[in-house]
Amino acid sequence: MKFLVVDDSRAVQTIIKRILANTGYRDIELRVASTGEEAVALLESWTPNLVLTDWHMPGMTGLELLQAIRQRVGADIHVGFVTTESSARNIEAAYRNGAAFVVTKPFVQETLQQAVLTVLQDGASAEQAIESSGRESLPIPTRFNPDPQRIRQLLGLSSIVCQIEPMAPIPVDRLALPYVIGIYGHPQSKALEAVCLLDLNAACILGGALAGLSPAAIHAAIASATLSREIYENATAFLADLSGMISAGKGGAPLVLSTSHLVQKPFEKLYSLWRQNNGRADFSLSFPGLGDGFIAFLLS
Fold first, then answer.
1. Distance (Å, whole) CA 276 – CA 170
2. One Pfam family of this protein, by short name (predicted)?
3. For every one of its 300 residues, what pLDDT tens digit does the chain have, with 9 covering 90 and above?
4. Do 217 and 273 fall into the same domain?
5. 188 burial class (0-12, 13-18, 19+ CB within 10 angstroms)?
6. Is the peptide bond prior to 171 cis by the omega test (within 30 degrees of 0)?
7. Which of 72, 154, 236, 264 has its CA 20 to 30 A from that of 65?
């Protein structure tokens, strides 16, 4: 994972570098620049996954740097602001020019860490993924059989003890953010066929347990609503393992997990699917000593 930190304060550079090192990503390549001009020169021969920039610096401003990146590189590089700038007009201009986030100084570590992880976990594209994945007409309808016993056996392979019970569908107004969704489709098609949703507790407990994290670390993730790389990637692996329960008709080929997303803000397309779908199953999950959560399967 590649990061570029652009700030004329070495102290702030050090703080941001330390926070990035704690996101859980291995093989981090991190470079720094003190001005926008230095950053532009670096970007001519190196492409980071995320640029974190101040707003007020000698010479080029952070907004001008963002505009230069969009003009020269395009939208492939995520850019976030870590700044004392608090003007609503300027912050709106940052988002209008494609900023991924704006974190205002002074900030607590969890705020910046969550902003960074949300970008890296592709949360911003969840709405786009569902909006653009139209349902195709298939000769064989998609079916699913999310059996609690099969889920329990799947978790048992990793020595995770979990009580799973069918539950009544949770109303959309009780769907608390953030949560993790998996989007499933056929290998030869980009069409959305099914969605699986893990609430925050379930995602943190499942992802944390599969990653071998301590109960204290899992509880801290839930309390801060922050999914580290380890938690998120292991929760995604669990969603991928569930694909065998969703197939194209009786005896049909299983669907595959197309993408997963950490969803931080509501969007109507998912809520519409939550209210009206072609099949649904909800289960409560209870993990001794860790807490409770839920999982929901939806057919589009």
1. 13
2. Response_reg
3. 899 999 999 999 999 998 888 877 767 899 999 999 999 999 999 999 899 999 999 999 999 999 999 988 766 789 999 999 999 999 999 999 999 999 999 888 888 988 888 887 765 556 666 665 554 444 444 566 778 888 888 888 888 999 999 999 999 888 898 899 999 888 777 678 889 999 999 999 999 999 999 999 999 999 988 888 889 999 999 999 988 787 655 556 778 888 888 887 777 888 888 999 888 999 999 999 999 999 999 988
4. yes
5. exposed
6. no
7. 264
Q: Return the ∠ at Cα 128 (arms to 121 and 137), rounded to 5°.
A: 120
Q: State the Cα–Cα distance between residues 282 and 170, nearest whole angstrom.
A: 8
CATH number of the domain that residue 33 is part of: 3.40.50.2300
**137 and 58 within one domain:** no
- The Cα–Cα gap between 186 and 257 comes to 9
- CA dihedral in degrees (266, 272, 276, 280; nearest 10)? -30
Q: For the whole model, what pTM was predicted?
A: 0.68
- Identify whether residues 93 and 183 lie together within a single domain: no
Q: Which domain holds residue 225?
A: 125-299
